[in-house]
Each structure stands twice: as structure tokens, then as C-alpha cells.
Amino acid sequence: MGSTQPTFTNPATTSLLELVKARRTHYALTGESPISDDAIEHIVQSAVLHVPSSYNTQTSRVVLLLKEEHRKVWDIAIAAMEGLVAAGAVPKEMFETSTKPKLNAFRAAYGTVLFFVDYDSLAAIKEKFAIYADKFNPFALESNAMSQYLVWTALQSEGLGANLQHYSPLIDEQVQKQWNLPASWKLDAQLVFGTPSAAPGEKAFAPLEDRFKVFGK
């Protein structure tokens, strides 16, 4: 957030940074999309193919759920939370007044992208580079997070709003069963998306000088 606007050699750089600024968390979403399902699929596929990973391990696994299939994942989440209420682990009043309306809002959206990491696929690289073996799982999560951010930003660019959720491990077993997914796929995050029906909340920034330093300029 410098005081002057720099000049870039490639105009696409300015466009990219504007997209980064525009990406926001949208909770008020409708079950509609301004773009085709094929366009959404292409965005997600591009992230799977082109987001980098440590040693090109390609550990991210992604499932795109649209329309009725999307609603199923939030039915799973609602049922799981109802089980916690029945077990006395979650207060019924809190579930009815807060949690359930929130889950129903996710359900009312157009789609969900499920992001997984296949840690089992790292066995060979961990053996080859044993001295760094404990680093590869965090590296895999970092790659997965980049995929989440890219998909989120691209969807925002196409007129879709999104919010990122983390309901693991609560829904993991039923998600795996519902879509017959490999046991080695470990769910990390759920990106809910749809057409925004309200503006996002205000975004506050901590002082940049507390978070960024430059040397040698």
C-alpha cells in the first residue's frame, strides 16, 4: 500500500493485483452462477494442474460439487452437528440460533469445492530425502492453500462470491463414503460459492509497517 503507483512492464500485473484486492469473503450467496459449470470446472482444473508443489509432488486432490451434489455436503454437516447436539457436546440453543442457520446459508449457495491432501503419496519422497521428511506434510498444505486461494480469486473475478470453511474431521468419513473417495485423501477445506446477494463486511488492515520490511532499496 505504497504512496505512489508503480509502473509495471506487463499490464496484466496490475490486473492480477486488482483481483487480489477484490477477493473477499462473501457469506450471503444464492444458488445461482453467472458463468457456466464448464467455466467453473476449468478454473478448478487449472488450479489442480498449475499450482506449484514442493518437488513437484502434486499432493492436492480436489472435488467440485455443484447444485444438488453441493447441497449433500452441507446436509452431511448439519446431520453431524445434530449428532453432537444429541450427544450433549453442543448446546441445542446455540445450534438452532447460530450454527444451523449458518450451515443452511452454505447449503443455499451454488457449489462447494472440497480440497484434500494425499499425504500417502509423499512416502517415496520422504524416504529419498529423509532429512527433510518432517517438512513434506507442511509443504503439501502450503500447496493446497495456494490452490484454494487461486480458485477463490478466479471465481470472484467471474462474479461469484465465496467463503472458506473447515469442518474437518467432523464430516470427513461421510464425505469419503458419499463420493467414494480414496482413504488417502484427507479433507482440508471447503470453499462455498454462489452469486453474492449482499456486500461483504468491512475489511480491516493491521499496520503494514508492522508486517512488512524491505532492505536494499
From TrEMBL:
Compartments it resides in: Cytoplasm; Nucleus
Start and end residues of each Nitroreductase domain: 20-194
Domain of life: Eukaryota
UniProt keyword terms in alphabetical order: Cytoplasm, Nucleus, Oxidoreductase
Record carries keyword Oxidoreductase: yes
A single MF term (Gene Ontology): oxidoreductase activity
Alphabetical GO biological process terms: cellular response to oxidative stress
GO cellular component: cytoplasm; nucleus
PANTHER family: FATTY ACID REPRESSION MUTANT PROTEIN 2-RELATED
Similarity comment: Belongs to the nitroreductase family.
Protein name: Nitroreductase
Source organism per UniProt: Aspergillus heteromorphus CBS 117.55
